[in-house]
Amino acid sequence: MKSITLKGRSASKGIAEGEALLTYDALSFLSDISVTEGIITSPQSKFKGQSVSDKILIFPTGRGSTADPYGFYMLKKAGKAPAAVINIDANPTTVAGAIISHTPMVYKLERNPLEVIEAGDHVLVDGNKGVVIITKQVT
Amino acid sequence: MKLTADEERMLAGESGPGVQRALELLIAVGEAYEAKKLIDISSSHILSPEMQFWNTGQLSRWSRELVAESVEGATHFRVPVTINPIFLEPAIAERLGYPESYIEEMRQSLAFGRETYARLGVIPTYTCCPFYIHTLRQGEHSGGAESLVVLFNNSVLGVRVNRESGPTALATALTGKTPLYGMHLSENRHGQAIVELKDELDPGTFTYADYNALSYGVGKMVVDKIPVFLGLPRHMSITQLKYLCAPLGVSAGIPMFHAVGITPEAPTLEVALGGRKPEMRIEVGKKEISRTFEELCSATEPRINYVFLGCPHVTIPEMNEIATLLQGKKIKSEVLLVVGTTEPLYLLARQMGLVDIIENSGGMVVSGMCSAGSFLRRGVPQGFHVGVVATNAAKAAHYLKAGGVQVWFGTMPQCINAAVTGKWGDA
Fold first, then answer.
1. Are B284 and B218 in contact (CB under 8 A)?
2. Model ipTM?
3. Average pLDDT, chain B
4. Is the CB of A107 less than 8 angstroms away from the CB of B253?
5. Looking at CA atoms only, how far is residue B92 from chain A in angstroms?
6. Which residues on B lie below 8 Å from A70 (Cβ)?
7. For B307, which of B23, B194, B337, B365 could close a Cys bridge (C-beta 3.0–4.6 Å)?
8. Across the interface, do B28 and A11 touch by the CB < 8 Å criterion?
9. Contact B379, B103 (CB under 8 A)
10. Pairwise CB contact (< 8 Å): B53 & A67
């Protein structure tokens, strides 16, 4: 089993691991994900219908404004939040959402996570150190 | 990020867990913006999820849990803090015939918020126009959320404030700090897109709706660049300026605009651009404004059920205009006309007899509530028929349309006429 470690910056503390879910959309936790079900709902997303719950959610950057962090918090309260978030660039509303929902979040990794990580890989996100450890699926 | 001794103490939990979490949040958000440090602010403007977004159901309970966690152990806001409006005034919910249990839940959520923030020393403005009440000066640094407040403060008053999120705004109020990034830095405040009004337009005769349409249309064109308006009348009123501000916050993501000869950081075009070349040049004429008027209307049904005025909250001159238009007239019983403002202005308008005129015609004047009609987009009780809205606010029209509500956008006289006849466009 191949293991890759990527260093980056931490946006929100904590350690979590799980199955990777990748999307290439800029996600808003208020507008693009159903709070009660934890499913991506944005009509234009190719990943519509996928569940983010307990996944290591990887997407380029967040979008949204004032109330978006609340969406992330509600998702956590509903028990449907991702286990951790990995972004390329950190949108401050995503950062705020990750923090108030106590979800580990790492960004600005030394390599593009969307190129290194594949759907289904096992990923550990260490939001305390700003490190991601990827265990590739056996092919 | 380098912290001061005071910030280190807050981070160590000396002011309680709420302030500690607030500082952690500000540091993390600041680092996402590459801020080198936190700065002191002299004021902040907060909004409240349990009062402005969700005041019933599970989302309301979770909102209250979040707020309780956020302020845990805090005894007082560190700076003067104003607060945004509420979602729905119970008196209106009663008038609409909402279930009593629903209204009771609303009251509980609102009471929680009022008590929590009162205990922390909030100035209970419950308005999107806190600058009517607690006015800041050019160069002051503020925290805050609510795009209209940010736009007005930055553009019209020269205050320095970022478009923060709800939780971050609360964090700035609890700590008296905000990260040094964005609008707090002079180099980020320059104009990037020139907006010229064509000669065919006579802005001196613009209605509030025209300013709304101009603002909304320009926002769509500039997207994320700071616009510099040329050709606006030097002596624009505060009322007109707030209508120039508000739609820019929804059709664009920007925190600021310049209007040459009008706004304090734009005495000339050169100064507004910071000596740089503009990245974009736009011309706006009659065609662009008409197109925006059409674009903001989503209704096909001419019979209306609501008129919302006061997005942003009306000034006394506006209250006068509304009363003049309604004097001696009766609003159709099936139409609910709501004029939104903030408490101090409401009290004065009451003394002036203006509220009586509006109420005698069948309308309502409400203080402290959001006039964008969000309550028709979200949290609507089962079986309640939403109906058609008329408004002169582009921001309200945009949100209502996005929420699937039928809306007519037009001038204040058109809206009031529709309230009296029951139909949009009837002479």
1. yes
2. 0.88
3. 97
4. no
5. 24
6. 49, 53, 63, 66, 166-167
7. B337
8. yes
9. no
10. yes
| B53 part of contact set with chain A, CB < 8 Å | yes
- Write out the two tokens for A88: 């390329």
Residue range B52-70, pLDDT digits in tens = 999 999 999 999 999 999 9
Query: Are B25 and A100 an interchain contact pair (Cβ–Cβ within 8 Å)?
Result: yes
Which tokens hold the place of B355? 């509220």
Q: Is B138 strand, coil or helix? A: coil
Spell out the domains of chain A, with CATH numbers in brackets.
2-136 (3.50.30.10)
DSSP assignment string, B310-334? -SSPPPHHHHHHHHHHHTT----TT
Nearest to B165 among A10, A11, A65 (CB): A65
Q: Which amino acid is at A12?
A: S
Residue for token pair 């320009």: B218
Nearest to A98, CA basis, from B28, B268, B230:
B28
CB contact under 8 A, B62 and A68: no
Distance CA B156, CA A103 (A): 38
Number of inter-chain CB pairs under 8 A, A vs B? 69
Closest Cα partner for B404 from B425, B424, B374? B374
Q: Is B223 on the interface with A (CB under 8 A)?
A: no
Alpha helices in A1-137 (DSSP H): 68-77, 92-100, 113-116
Interface-testing mutation among A80, A100, A102, A105, with chain B (most B C-beta atoms within 10 A)? A100
Mean pLDDT value across residues B29-56: 95
Give dist(CA B307, CA B392) in Å, integer.
9
Neighbours of B91 (CB within 10 A): 12
A10 counts as catalytic = no
pLDDT digits (tens, 9 = 90+) for A55-64: 999 999 998 7
Whether pTM > 0.90 for this model: the answer is yes
